[in-house]
Amino acid sequence: MKTLKFIPAFFFTILCLFSCDQKNNKITSTSDYNKYLDLKENKSLDFAHNEIDFWQKKFDAAPNQITYLGQLAANYSTLFEYTGDIKNLYKTEELLIQSNEALKYSRVSTIRSLARNFIAQHRFKEALVLANKALEIGEGLTETQKLLFDVQMELGNYAEAESNLKSLKNMNDYDYLIRLAKWNDHKGDITTAITFMEKARDIAEKEDNKTLKIWSYSNLGDFYGHAGRIQESYDSYLKTLAIDPNYSYALKGIAWIVFSHERNISEAKRIIEAIEKTHNTPDFYLLKSQIAQFAGNKVEAKSNRNSYLKMLNENNYGAMYNKYNVLLFADDKSTALKALEIAEIEVEHRPTPDSYDLLAWSYLNLGQNKLALEIAQKHVIGKSFEPKVQYHLAMIYNANNLTEKAKPIKEELISSIYELGPDYDKKVNQL
Q1: C-beta separation of 253 from 261 below 8 A
Q2: Could you report the per-residue pLDDT of 298-314, keeping only the tens digit for each?
Q3: Domains in the chain and their CATH numbers?
């Protein structure tokens, strides 16, 4: 009889421990963000539409007024930011090209705007050509150097990026501080990156600049997450939404916390599906696929992957989703060769350590273990500190019987499960 009494008592103790652990993990509250999930209006979007109507009428009446094209382009860019509709990004490009051609590529601000549009499209080499053209003109040198830093970072030209960063040095300048934060994040020093981003945030708050505050809070949300400071990450996303209730990026950040930290599948899906109603981009299907995969729902996972591919097929996203495609196709033997083809294109367009990681990963999934290792040794090791890159590296080491080299990576990855996602729990433990 004593034994029979002991078993349920022990069982309830375990149950209590489990539920207590789950409570400790919970930091979000639906009451914090529910009001942002079903908004009936978007003032920024309405304003952009009204501005487009206004400037289009003015341009139609006076086609020689080239400055009107810049106003139109800026507002179409806002439409893209809030809706994710790729057509708006291309319309922005069309207007900026028209403007630059009319000005014979003589105005640096218009040249830089087109370069930034190309960065958004992942057309980095073309963006660099434009940035250098702006540099040659010489006007607005500081703004051009900021652009050059951004482009060189995307292309993996880190020495050139650092040179431009040094030329911008001003510890009281917001734009310098956010780039200094990005530079330290690139080097794998997230603590220092956060310090500089917080300094930038302080400037944004002091100036009470809405745009800069939104950018600071949302990026700090990311940085805090990378550092495992989940509560601060959540608070930063909420601060972003308090300023701009329609800022879907912050809601996506909260959805990730709910999924990866709290492991609440249904709530994460609810948030994502609410975002999709107004901001519909292919990556949300991949996120839903990842959630379904973790939940053990293979049918739903496949359905979302197919929806992702269908959306890519119906819209021209150029190179914007190359990284996603490599990771998706490399996992399946029937599409592994396709992954390799895309990875080769990505390395050509953007020869960064992360791109070379995609190439090495593709070769590994095709059974070419030694070649994968050679690429990783030459282009990846010590040059990228992204958790997914490190996971790939550990897998490459193991495939080449270099298990001792994989062990320390495994230990680091255990602390990066939040960033990788809960579906990596098992993968990392199996390394």
Answers
A1: no
A2: 999 999 999 999 999 99
A3: 169-245 (1.25.40.10), 318-431 (1.25.40.10)
